[in-house]
């Protein structure tokens, strides 16, 4: 159920968090693919090994995510994000000065742990803690801003790396996390603390669950299953976009797909911001899930058609863009604001663990079954995600009518 409130989203907090998310994703995630070849050369590794190290770090970061989600609930997302910015800066410096492979991997693990503390999961929790009743809208606005992280940081990283070593680029990014992100997160943390003191820890402002206790566990399992399957397919496709396109006779289109994917993500968030107010978060999750197998079916059915590949890129980008929103808003709508950080940590853990394994799994399938069959399996898995969210809608129907009566006091 969409939460209706006359309260206004915290514009200053959203804008500030948008900046830290762009820096957080740009410096800790998007820059790696550009700097990885030189990292591998300096360490004496192949490119496969350097990305294998990243997958291992993602896996460990994912396993640590539930604990970090608990910390967010206990200490406040602002404090955790402030600490995360300091850890991110330290991990980037440690990576730049790593004397060997073991130290480099340890620093990479530090980067992935810091990512859990400063990226979407923590940022969504902070918006929930600032103003729970308008958090769904706030999350939508934030993802719209943060969607430009790759658009901004890929060219920035490339330009810097043209004149500097990857170590020097990482030192600059460490400074950005320390000088820009840390003060912003500290300021937001103080704001949340002051608001909670004024409102008695925000008890009157919390968002109530839309599900009765007996349905929360099965709904949570279904939700995590849907998110995990979507993460698996998204991660596998993004990593293997070039070999997939080449095998389908569309090798040159991989670059074009990449240029359409990012704007399509932002477009889906903009459309949702303007027209999505009347949609429940469960329905938004279903629409998002449907777009993924639809994109795959278009690609399989039309290859090697160029218009088909372009349509695939747009539909795939639309689905991926909505996924970032639903990942933050659906748990809030179903389970309320209490314990939101812990739930986000659990969801993030499953998503990261699955994402870390997905590229290897798709590579294995393509090597043994061919690209068309592998994409068909991916389409089938994403269809199961659709079924999971449809099942959640079925679970919520008995309680939809009573909740509609419960919310008018918000006006």
UniProtKB/TrEMBL annotation:
Main location class: membrane
InterPro entries found in the cross-reference section: MFS, MFS_dom, MFS_trans_sf, Proton-linked_MCT, Sugar_transporter_CS
Keywords: Membrane, Transmembrane, Transmembrane helix
Coiled-coil residue spans: none
Domain (Major facilitator superfamily (MFS) profile): residue spans on this chain: 1-400
TM regions (residue ranges): 12-30, 50-68, 80-99, 105-127, 139-157, 169-188, 219-238, 244-261, 282-303, 309-336, 348-367, 373-395
PANTHER family: MONOCARBOXYLATE TRANSPORTER
Protein name, UniProt field: MFS family permease
Naturally occurring in which organism (per UniProt): Rhizobium laguerreae
């Amino acid at each position: 159920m969409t939460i209706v409130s006359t309260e206004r989203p915290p514009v200053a907090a959203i804008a500030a968090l948008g900046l830290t998310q762009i820096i957080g994703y740009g410096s800790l995630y998007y820059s790696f693919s550009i700097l990885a070849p030189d990292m591998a050369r300096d360490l004496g590794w192949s490119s496969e090994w350097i990305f294998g190290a990243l997958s291992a770090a993602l896996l460990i970061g994912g396993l640590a995510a539930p604990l970090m989600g608990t910390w967010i609930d206990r200490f406040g997302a602002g404090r955790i994000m402030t600490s995360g910015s300091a850890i991110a800066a330290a991990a980037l410096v440690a990576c730049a000065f790593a004397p060997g492979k073991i130290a480099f991997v340890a620093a990479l693990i530090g980067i992935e742990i810091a990512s859990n503390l400063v990226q979407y999961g923590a940022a969504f929790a902070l918006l929930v803690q600032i103003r729970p009743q308008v958090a769904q809208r706030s999350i939508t606005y934030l993802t719209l801003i943060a969607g430009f992280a790759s658009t901004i940081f890929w060219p920035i990283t490339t330009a810097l790396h043209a004149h500097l070593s990857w170590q020097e680029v990482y030192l600059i990014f460490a400074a950005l996390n320390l000088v820009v992100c840390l003060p912003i997160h500290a300021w937001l943390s103080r704001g949340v603390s002051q608001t909670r003191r004024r409102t008695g820890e925000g008890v009157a402002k919390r968002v109530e669950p839309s599900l009765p206790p007996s349905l929360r566990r099965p709904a949570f399992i279904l939700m995590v299953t849907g998110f995990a399957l979507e993460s698996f397919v998204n991660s596998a496709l993004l990593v293997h976009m070039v070999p997939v396109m080449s095998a389908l006779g569309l090798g040159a289109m991989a670059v074009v797909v990449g240029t359409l994917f990012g704007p399509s993500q932002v477009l889906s968030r903009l459309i949702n911001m303007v027209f999505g107010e009347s949609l429940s978060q469960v329905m938004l999750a279903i629409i998002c899930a449907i777009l993924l197998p639809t994109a795959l079916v278009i690609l399989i059915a039309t290859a090697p058609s160029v218009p088909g590949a372009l349509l695939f890129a747009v539909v795939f980008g639309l689905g991926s863009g909505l996924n970032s929103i639903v990942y933050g808003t659906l748990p809030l709508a179903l389970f309320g604001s209490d314990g939101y950080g812990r739930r986000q940590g659990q969801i993030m853990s499953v998503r990261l663990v699955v994402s870390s394994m997905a590229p290897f799994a798709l590579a294995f399938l393509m090597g043994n079954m061919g690209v068309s069959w592998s994409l068909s399996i991916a389409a089938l898995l994403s269809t199961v995600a659709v079924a999971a969210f449809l099942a959640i809608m079925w679970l919520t129907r008995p309680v939809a009518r009573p909740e509609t009566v419960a919310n008018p006091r918000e006006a």
